[in-house]
Structure formats: C-alpha cells, structure tokens
Design goal:
By secondary structure, the chain is α/β, with parallel strands linked by helices. It has two domains: about 1-130, PAS domain (Beta-Lactamase, 2-Layer Sandwich), CATH 3.30.450; about 150-260, Transcription Regulator spoIIAA (2-Layer Sandwich), CATH 3.30.750.24. Helices cover about 45% and strands about 25% of the residues. The protein is built from ten helices and ten strands. Strands 2-1-5-4-3 form a five-stranded antiparallel sheet, sandwiched between helices. A hairpin with a 2-residue loop joins strand 3 (about 90-95) and strand 4 (about 100-110). Helix 7 packs parallel to helix 8 (about 205-220).
C-alpha cells in the first residue's frame, strides 16, 4: 500500500515538473496570483516582458508591476475570476518602466484539487503593433473618406458635395460632419448633395440621406439632393420611401437653378 502511494506521489511530481517546464517554455507571458493578487508564478517570457527576475516580483501585487488601465478598478478581469467568474479576455494598456504596451489578456480561475478557487491565471499577448496598425488604418480611412466626400463652394452660400460609391452608416456620419462643418465655415444656405455616383439606393441609404437633410435644416440651411437617376427614382417608389419636403433633382444643373430660386438669385445673361 505504501509502495502504491509512493509510486503515485512520484508520478505526480514528474507530472508537476513537466507542466512547469512547459509553462516556462511557452513564448507568451503567463502569470498566476493568489486571492490577494500577489504574484505566485511568472514564466520566463513574463519575466522578460516586465524586465525583472521572478525573485524580484514574487509576492508583489500584480497591479504594482503592470500599472494598467484596468488595475484596481472594476474592469480588472483577474479580480473577476477570483470572485467567482469563469474566464475573461480583454484589451488593456500596461505601463512598465515608462513603456506603454497595448495587450490582450485572458484570465481564468486557479483551482485546487477540490475545485476551490485559490487565485487566478493570466496569459498576455503583446498587441502594440496590432493597435498601431489599426490606428494607421483608421487614419488612412479617415483621409480616404475626406477625399471621397469633398465640399465644393459652387456659388455664394451654395455648396455642393458629390458622393461616389457606397453609403453606409460610417460614410453617412462622415458626410453629415462634412456638411455641418461646411455650413459653419461658409455660412452656406443651400447644400446640394449630388448622388449621381451612388450605384444603388435602398431603405438604409435613403434613411441616411433623410437624416443628413434634417440635420442640415436644423443649421438653417436647405438640402437639395441631385443626381436622382430613373433607376434610383424607381427604387425609392418601390420601397415606399418618403423623402418628405426634401428637394430632389435629376441633374446638378436643375439643383443649382432651385438653389438660385431659394436664395432669390437672378441669373442675367449678357448679350
């Protein structure tokens, strides 16, 4: 009987040593803390990540090491799993020795053989380059959107915004921002939204246009939609979309004539 226990004990020790070796060789930072958020384990990748030896940080509160935006707040996922949660994954920003690092971290409860929670485990992915690329893409998209939705002063207090391509919610918001900014800067009284370059108009696109026109009106400016093709007109009728009192025209020339009429401008031809 004693021999059997000794054999099982030896086997458990071997399994434990193998598990520790595996954790140490994982290239991703892995950390374990006790219920008080004091560090009880950090693998080699984690030590390299924070720039300290394990002996230097053993028993230290994790929040004093990482100093992240979630530390000591209700957003701390480690605290959530220790309090009885299952597993959480979140993005975060840590500050280590004046280094700002964007991470994605996953936490899970650390349990004993009886299933009782005795701490938490966390593994970390350095997300800094990914966040940098995402920021770069957002900036590029912003520039592309601004280029694709130019505001052109066509006449005194008359501005035209030609729209080409697809109108989604993000594009519609950008168009609205451009129009309202242009109204403020130029004291425009008529905005012509030319959708000749929009291939298709569905309910969502029409609703975006209506919202833009209403926002323009609240700024004391009238919105005229030009470039209504026969196909677009037919689609609007078939969908039962009511554009309300929004002025519409098939051509930019007709829209400009309407704008002159609204502003009581008179065009006199020289002979």
């Amino acid at each position: 009987m004693n021999a059997e226990k000794q054999k099982n004990s030896s086997s458990n020790q071997i399994d434990g040593n193998l598990a520790l070796q595996i954790l140490q060789q994982i290239p991703t930072p892995v950390m374990a803390v006790d219920p008080n958020l004091q560090i009880i384990f950090m693998n080699q990748a984690g030590c390299r990540f924070i720039g300290k030896n394990f002996e230097e940080i053993k028993g230290t509160h994790c929040y004093s090491i990482f100093n992240s935006t979630h530390c000591q707040t209700s957003d701390c996922r480690m605290k959530k799993v220790i309090d009885g949660g299952e597993r959480f994954t979140a993005r975060n920003q840590v500050n280590i020795d004046d280094r700002v690092i964007h991470i994605e971290y996953t936490t899970a409860p650390l349990k004993d053989d009886n299933g009782n929670i005795i701490g938490g485990i966390e593994y970390i992915l350095d997300n800094t380059e990914r966040v940098r690329q995402e920021q770069k893409l957002r900036e590029q998209n912003k520039i592309i959107m601004e280029i694709s939705t130019p505001a052109i002063k066509l006449w005194d207090r008359i501005v035209v915004i030609p729209v080409v391509g697809v109108i989604d919610s993000m594009r519609a918001q950008q168009m609205m921002d451009t129009m309202l900014k242009e109204i403020t800067q130029t004291s425009a009284k008529v905005i012509i939204l030319d959708i000749h370059g929009v291939a298709a108009v569905d309910t969502a696109v029409a609703n975006h246009l209506i919202k833009i026109a209403k926002a323009t009106k609240l700024m004391g400016c009238r919105c005229i939609i030009s470039g209504i093709s026969p196909a677009v007109a037919q689609a609007i009728v078939q969908l039962g979309i009511d554009l309300g009192d929004i002025n519409t025209n098939s051509t930019l020339e007709d829209a400009l004539s309407d704008a002159f009429a609204l502003l009581k401008f008179e065009v006199i031809s020289k002979k």
